[in-house]
Amino acid sequence: MPLSEQEQRMLDEMERHLLKHDADVVTAPSGDRSLSYRNLVYGALLLLVGVGGLVAAVVASTGLGPVGSIIIGVVAFLAMLGGAMLAFTPVRRTAESLAPEDAKPRAARSRDASFMDRMNDRWDRRQDEH
User: What is the pTM of this model?
Assistant: First the structure.
């Protein structure tokens, strides 16, 4: 069932509003800092070592006594804290990754573009055709 003219205008207005406001949130630039996958992996491993240390402190509490298990527990907690900080602290991107998009060839831009960016581009091309 086709839309009436008023419904079509309202739909077009809502689409423009969404593209104008919500697309800005999704594609907002994050500046010159981003998360490093290497740091995420190392941080997760350090976090797991810390959890293992806490389990070891609880298990060893009978053999080492309260002071030894507290020391192991504190070291394990610090390892977990350090792992979380390492994993989620943004790193400064290199100058190469900060290069403008126009300098990249079209094929490289399409590989780097996010799914939403590609969908927005396709939507814009379809709207330009009509």
Answer: 0.48
